[in-house]
Specification:
The complex is a heterodimer of chains A (113) and B (113).
Chain A: E1 3-7, E2 10-14, E3 19-26, E4 30-38, E5 45-50, E6 56-59, E7 62-66, E8 70-75, E9 84-92, E10 102-103, E11 107-112
Parallel strand pairs in A: 2-11
Antiparallel strand pairs in A: 1-3, 3-8, 4-5, 4-9, 6-7, 7-8, 9-10, 9-11
Chain B: E1 4-7, E2 10-13, E3 19-25, E4 31-38, E5 42-51, E6 54-57, E7 65-66, E8 76-78, E9 87-94, E10 103-104, E11 108-112
The chains are: A mainly beta (113), B mainly beta (113).
């Protein structure tokens, strides 16, 4: 069974204080790992897809990296508008669940001015 | 504008009264999916559809039905709603089932009394 564990559950940062969110996963074979951002009361918004260990992707203050067991979302010099819940999801390469996405429970990020 | 729409956005109903939540996308996406989001449990996949007339169960399909008769529409049917189906529901679509980012609708908040 595919599993995704995100840590920490909640993170409070001062504006400008860089940090990282963790997503640990267990999957038979990874087809893709996805990061989403979710604002309160809204649907998740796609950020990144990572396919293989060693891959990195960047967007503004966010950088996602991938190893064989986990992914990190690095936030550099965050601003209050980066406050949101960040979700990680994995899709397996084969088996009965090959078209399923399994989500972690998310990390709620608060950036204080 | 490319988007996924859901209706209704809010619904309060009583136990046993059949209801349908509609989902429509205008991006000609092949893959569509339904999720429910509950505090402490995160996003869980209910059903997904790889294309017209092709559907499959996700992690929590009990008590739900779906159909995909047209590419753009993927309604979620609750034949006999129960209070444990009180949740926030999201519809999502993507170009294909494999490794493509999903675009989420705005959500439907359902309360079953």
């Amino acid at each position: 069974e595919d599993q995704v564990t995100q840590s920490p559950e909640a993170l409070r940062l001062q504006e400008g204080e860089s940090s990282s969110l963790n997503c640990s996963y267990t999957v038979s074979g990874l087809r893709g790992l996805f990061w989403y951002r979710q604002d309160p009361g809204k649907g998740p918004e796609f950020l990144f897809t990572l396919y293989s260990a060693g891959e990195e992707k960047e967007k503004e203050r966010l950088k996602a990296t991938l190893t064989k067991k986990e992914s990190f979302l690095h936030i550099t010099a965050p601003k209050p508008e980066d406050s949101a819940t960040y979700l990680c999801a994995v899709q397996a390469i084969s088996g009965a669940g090959s078209y399923q996405l399994t989500f972690g429970k998310g990390t709620k990020l608060s950036v204080i001015p | 504008e490319a988007q996924v729409t859901q209706n209704p956005r809010y619904l309060i109903t009583v136990t046993g009264k059949k209801l349908t939540v509609t989902c429509s996308q205008n991006m000609n996406h092949e893959y569509m999916s339904w999720y429910r989001q509950d505090p402490g449990l995160g996003l869980r996949q209910i059903y997904y559809s790889m294309n017209v007339e092709v559907t499959d169960k996700g992690d929590v399909p009990e008590g739900y039905k779906v159909s995909r008769k047209e590419k753009r529409n993927f309604p979620l049917i609750l034949e006999s709603p129960s209070p444990n189906q009180t949740s926030l529901y999201f519809c999502a679509s993507s170009r294909q089932g494999y490794s493509y980012e999903q675009y989420f609708g705005p959500g439907t908040r359902l309360t079953v009394t």
